[in-house]
Amino acid sequence: MLEDGLSYPMQGDSWIGRMVIGGVLLFFSFFIIPVFFFQGYLLRVLGSTVRGEAEPPAWDDWGGLFVDGLKAAVVAFVYAFVPLIVFVGIGTVLVGLGGAAGDSGGGIIAGFGLLSFLFFIPVMLIVYYIAPAALANMAVDGSIGAAFDFNMISNVVLSVDYFVAVLMPIVVGVIINIISFVLGITIIGYLLVPFVTFYGQVAIFRMFGLAFAKQSQRGSVSTSTATF
Question: Would you say residue 66 has pLDDT above 50?
Answer without folding.
Answer: yes
